[in-house]
Amino acid sequence: MGDYSKKRFLVVDDQPMAREALRSIALTVGAFAVEFASSYQDALYRIRNNVPDIILSDYMLGDGRSGQQLLEELRRFNMLPDETIFMMVTGEQAYEQVVSAVELVPDDYIIKPFSPDKLVLRLDRITAKKNFFAGFYREKRKQDFAAAIAFLQAQHDTEAGRPYRFEILRQQAETQLAIGDLKAAEATYRNILDKYEFPWARAGMARTMHRQSRLVEARQEIERVVASTPHFFDAADLKATICMAQGEHAEAQRVLDEVAKRTPRNYLRKRLLAEAATLNGDTETARAAMTDVITNDTMPGAIAPEDRLALARSHINSGDNISAEKILLSLRDGEVRSLNLPEQASYAALMALASPERGTSRFSGLRPAMLASKLTPTAQMDIVRAALSVKDHKLADLHTDYLMSSLDAKKVFSNIRAQYALHGREQDFRTIQKEVALRRIQQEAAAQSASTMIDF
């Protein structure tokens, strides 16, 4: 039995009797201190202020919240150190099927009712695993990712690593993906899948292919995951993201609509739904989703300026320029000045669209910077729309050329074409398309010629 006399426990449960029962069990196994959290928000507050060593969280937390959502939020805001143990407590016998499908898994789970001996057995097992990966956690925290991967590779074939061989490969693949070594990540996921068909590994494979713009292959991989594991909502998010990249905005929105109804308090998913709905021309769904985000994503620091820009954009798309102007003006001058250039460009473009008399001069003032920079696809789309509205054809055409030449071309094509058609310039858009296509053909021919010369 492990020594828990120096460990701080946090019990998260909305039922007083259940909290007291968990407290008694934690004290029985020798816990140094046991604190309570009676709700999701209470748990976030306590963890943010003093991270416990061990968290025992009920799966159902009331008010439509779950322990899984708590775990996801803790990971989203980097509030949960790798060394902290997060154990899910559930009365659902079918929980194993759910947890095997999710991407952000707890360290372990235990089904109620359970004895102190059973809890100790689980905690001892998790503690041994945490100790095994301690070197990896240390290097990752220092952001020495080469050393972190080297540690994992050195441990893979050891006797001590035998029980964790798939977790070693999973951590290796996720680290490779995080640092952008996509080929290595793909090879690691293939290594896993050659041995066992884990849904998270198949989704990881799809993610590496998506990042390499191999969209057809990525779509095929993620379709398999979505079909076989309906509780794997992150896989549905990835499918929707791939659909958007392929220009299939209606399908992306359909997928996200379905999972958002089942996870109404996942606000990252609501943001993704708003993006899909915007691209699909469903302005009311986009506006409702972003309003929900702004109103209810209450974690400190959760609402970023880009969220307010997205809400203003949805108001403009709905023809409600008054509400859009109000949202934009809610950003103080100091906040606007502190935005990065793409966000400043979006702000100026959206203000020019919502309130031409107030925003056109700001938009014109940023014109030299917008002419000299490629910016992000979202900012470029805002610029094109505003530039077309003020008849700045040079600026609109420049960023349209950038967009049509980029990996996001399929994603933005229908929206940009609609804007040009709205301003009677559809033929000009077709001309830009042809010029981009011709350049691409010339570049591919040059690359082929260079390859042939190297072969000789």
How would you explain this protein's 3D organization?
Helix 12 (233-245) runs antiparallel to helix 13 (249-262) and helix 19 runs parallel beside helix 22 (377-389). It is built from 25 helices and 7 strands. It has a domain at 8-131: Response regulator (Rossmann fold). Helices cover 69% and strands 7% of the residues. It has helices spanning 16-28, 40-49, 67-76, 95-99, 116-132, 134-141, 145-156, 165-178, 182-195, 199-211, 215-228, 233-245, 249-262, 267-280, 283-296, 305-317, 321-329, 333-338, 341-354, 356-365, 367-372, 377-389, 393-405, 409-422, 426-455, and strands at residues 8-12, 33-37, 54-58, 60-62, 65-66, 85-90, 108-111. By secondary structure, it is of the alpha/beta class. Strands 2-1-3-6-7 form a 5-stranded parallel beta sheet, with helices on both faces. It has a two-stranded antiparallel sheet with strand order 4-5. The termini are far apart.
State the share of residues found in helices, binned by percent.
Answer: 55-70%
Report the sheet-strand fraction. 5-15%
Q: Which stretches are low in confidence, meaning pLDDT under 50 for 5 or more residues running?
A: none
Structural class: alpha/beta
**Overall radius of gyration:** 25 Å
Q: Tell me the name of the CATH class of one domain.
A: Alpha Beta
CATH topology term of one domain: Rossmann fold
Helices, by number, come to 25
The CATH level-2 architecture of one domain is identified as 3-Layer(aba) Sandwich
Indicate the overall shape.
globular
| Extended strand count | 7
Mean pLDDT equals: 92
Strand line-up of the largest beta sheet:
2-1-3-6-7
CATH-wise, what's the superfamily of one domain? Response regulator
Beginning-to-end CA distance, first to last residue: 68 Å
Q: Major β-sheet, in short?
A: 5 strands, parallel
Protein name: Response regulator
Organism: Candidatus Dechloromonas phosphorivorans
Pfam families: Response_reg (PF00072)
InterPro entries: Bact_response_regulator (IPR050595), CheY-like_superfamily (IPR011006), Sig_transdc_resp-reg_receiver (IPR001789), TPR-like_helical_dom_sf (IPR011990)
